[in-house]
């Protein structure tokens, strides 16, 4: 039989992220997208888990933040509530410290971390806002200021540094890359490569501090930490695809533009050396680049941390499956970028990578999330494509993939019918 088509879930994955990644209770966010000016007049009722201390404001703040993370993240009102509560706690602590001159009132690290990340999340609601004090830059400046305040007061706390990495990785595409085109000049922007390297160093140093403290290790096992890898992955994708839209609108009489487009089509950097993304694009196009190395190493570290508990809670099990899925999909994409034909070494490396991807995707299998079945099917097909046509190994992998696709197709009322038909037709030829 012929080789099966790659990229089964690729066109659907971005949509699936919003459809299935969040299993949150939408009732928290429905109808709450009011302006920030009304946040003092409206109230939100947030149910607290049994383990949350209703008398502890920091515990309540964590519950608010968890509600945001588990929601569809469309409620600016909820975010404003979180920011206001963080601000209140910081002010109260500062006031108490001034009153008691012989004593410094310390806040828990979560307050500073949540404060900064909530402000960074608010920036996403103001991408078109040009009002002084309410621009994307203003929100990120304030977010970094709160994070740095926490770092100054708690220099040995790794959670705050991880939050700093989260904020910086959100800032780069939203504040800077969104304003770039192919004619942008590096002198008009900060050094993007240095900003990204700084974010990765913040994460690495934060993780080292976390490993020194049992309480920090426990706080490390959270959804927002895992989502840092999404931010990095998305950022690298943005950088890799930068300029592709430009290629579709090229003037056929513009010889220089045509040469740039041809270079882009061949997978080469199409921006000029003076472009603010030139250096980082050069980096991500290299095999084994530092960003790929960081992603794999640190995601494996995260996976180890969430796998230590012998009796994992439902939340910890969900985090573990999420980490397995991210690592499996990342390896799947890594294998797809290899050039197999005519290179035995690359071909063998591709098989090795895909087998690892399958191991992780099997562990990410969730009976309630059909996309996890489809991801595994895609990995099986990708591996099958590397074996000889109609070989025993290929047939077995294709059959297993078809089984997973049928299961997913039935569960989603025909969502994967076209893909399944393509696979079955290929098997019959």
TrEMBL record:
GO biological process assignments: positive regulation of SREBP signaling pathway; regulation of translation
Top-level taxon in the UniProt lineage: Eukaryota
Protein name per its UniProtKB record: Enhancer of translation termination 1
InterPro entries, A to Z: Nro1/ETT1 (IPR024318)
Keywords annotated in UniProt: Nucleus, Transcription, Transcription regulation, Translation regulation
Similarity section: Belongs to the ETT1 family.
One cellular component (GO) term of this entry: nucleus
UniProt entry tagged with the keyword Nucleotide-binding: no
Keyword Calcium among UniProt keywords: no
Record function comment: Required for correct translation termination and probably involved in regulation of hypoxic gene expression.
């Amino acid at each position: 039989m012929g080789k099966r088509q790659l990229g089964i879930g690729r066109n659907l994955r971005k949509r699936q992220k919003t459809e299935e990644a969040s299993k949150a209770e939408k009732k928290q966010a429905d109808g709450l997208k009011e302006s920030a000016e009304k946040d003092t007049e409206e109230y939100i009722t947030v149910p607290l888990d049994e383990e949350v201390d209703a008398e502890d404001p920091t515990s309540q703040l964590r519950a608010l933040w968890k509600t945001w993370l588990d929601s569809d993240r469309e409620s600016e009102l909820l975010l404003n509530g979180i920011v206001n509560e963080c601000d209140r706690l910081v002010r109260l602590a500062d006031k108490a410290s001034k009153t008691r001159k012989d004593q410094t009132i310390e806040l828990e690290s979560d307050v500073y971390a949540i404060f900064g990340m909530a402000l960074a999340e608010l920036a996403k609601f103001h991408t078109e806002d040009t009002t002084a004090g309410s621009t994307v830059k203003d929100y990120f400046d304030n977010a970094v200021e709160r994070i740095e305040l926490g770092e100054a007061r708690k220099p040995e706390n790794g959670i705050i540094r991880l939050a700093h990495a989260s904020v910086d990785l959100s800032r780069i595409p939203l504040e800077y890359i969104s304003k770039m085109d192919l004619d942008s000049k590096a002198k008009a922007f900060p050094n993007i490569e240095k900003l990204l390297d700084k974010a990765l160093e913040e994460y690495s140093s934060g993780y080292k501090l976390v490993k020194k403290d049992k309480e920090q290790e426990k706080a490390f096992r959270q959804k927002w930490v895992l989502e840092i890898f999404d931010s990095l992955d998305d950022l690298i994708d943005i950088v890799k695809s930068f300029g592709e839209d430009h290629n579709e609108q090229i003037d056929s009489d513009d010889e220089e533009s045509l040469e740039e487009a041809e270079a882009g089509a061949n997978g080469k950097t199409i921006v000029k050396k003076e472009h603010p993304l030139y250096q980082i694009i050069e980096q991500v196009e290299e095999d084994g680049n530092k960003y790929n190395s960081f992603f794999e190493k640190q995601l494996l570290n995260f996976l180890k941390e969430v796998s230590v508990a012998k009796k994992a809670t439902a939340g910890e099990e969900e985090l573990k499956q999420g980490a397995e899925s991210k690592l499996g999909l990342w390896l799947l994409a890594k294998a797809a970028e290899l050039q197999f034909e005519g290179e035995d070494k690359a071909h063998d490396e591709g098989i090795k990578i895909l087998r690892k991807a399958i191991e992780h995707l099997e562990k990410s299998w969730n009976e309630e999330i059909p996309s996890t079945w489809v991801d595994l099917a895609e990995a099986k097909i990708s591996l099958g494509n590397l074996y000889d046509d109609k070989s025993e190994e290929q047939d077995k992998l294709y059959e297993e993939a078809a089984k997973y696709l049928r299961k997913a197709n039935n569960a989603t009322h025909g969502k994967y019918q076209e893909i399944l038909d393509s696979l079955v037709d290929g098997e019959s030829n």
